[in-house]
Amino acid sequence: MITARPGQVAAVIDEFPAAYVPIGSIEWHGPHLPLGFDGLKAEALVRRVASRIGKGVLFPTMYWRGYRTMNFPFTIHAPSFSAKAIARQLHDMGFKIILMVTGHYPPAQVRNVRGAAAWLMKKHPDTYAMGIPEQFAVQDLGYLGDHAARDETSIGMALFPKLVDMSALPNGLAYIDRCKRLGIMGHDPASEANVDFGNKIVTAFVDRVVATIEDAWTSKSQAPIWALYKEADRLARQHQNVLRAADFIKAQGMDSNRDLLAFARWFVLSRGRQEKGPRKTRSQ
């Protein structure tokens, strides 16, 4: 998109009016992942979708608009952005298929991109828009979305292994210590992350998103996209509902109710600030 001239973009839209938009952040992702991980991840996934379809316009990754970021070093905290304004302008350019994938997914940002896509589809029945974090397409495979933990580390190992430094991770840290000291929220990446899981998630994400886009376009129906959202919501209620404490604790990689309470105190009272205290292990 950056190097394309207007006539070139217009020709692509005439052939297949798809816009692929990766969204990320500049944010601490543990000592082992790059600061731009969210955008790198989103771009790599979206690029694979665009390559599989073989048509459309890949937009530059949005790195500077991630908000609700970690309260850790080397992190850019930005105000909210209007995904609705972006979606509307893409539609005005002539795009009928819009895929926004946010690799940074606090609830507010997910609502932003999802709400924009839903608003656009309701306003324009001949438009097929998706605003999703990557886990929306693969929760049934055990990838629920975390922060620099097993899930993101595994997908990083699959997408760009040279940028992942597993030797930077200490072994045996308790859940709350991983959060406070390393900014890692989820299953322990040191012991549980693996490239096979990452490859499985990447393949499934690309297969499913491509199938959803192609089904919607060929059938001229938004139903495949609404079905993806419905299934994502069902699985989220099953695995990430804090009212179902046992399921929530297991999904988050916690060991007990004590972890849940300790995390809540740190995240709310300390605003998730990095703490450099004595090392703890699971046995302590």
Task: Write a structural description.
Strand 1, helix 2 (37-53) and strand 2 (57-58) form a beta-alpha-beta unit. The longest helix has 25 residues, at 195-219. With 284 residues, the chain is of the alpha/beta class. It has a single domain (6-269), classed as Creatininase (Rossmann fold, 3-Layer(aba) Sandwich). It has a 4-stranded parallel beta sheet with strand order 2-1-3-4, sandwiched between helices. Mean pLDDT is 93; it is low at 278-284. The protein is built from 11 helices and 4 strands. The protein is globular, with a radius of gyration of 19 Å.
CATH superfamily: Creatininase
Question: Biggest sheet: strands side by side, in what order?
Answer: 2-1-3-4
The biggest beta sheet, please?
4 strands, parallel
Number of helices: 11
Number of strand segments: 4
CATH topology: Rossmann fold
Outline the low-pLDDT stretches. Answer: 278-284
Q: What is the share of helical residues?
A: 40-55%
Number of domains: 1
Topology as a string of helices (H) and strands (E): HEHEHEHEHHHHHHH
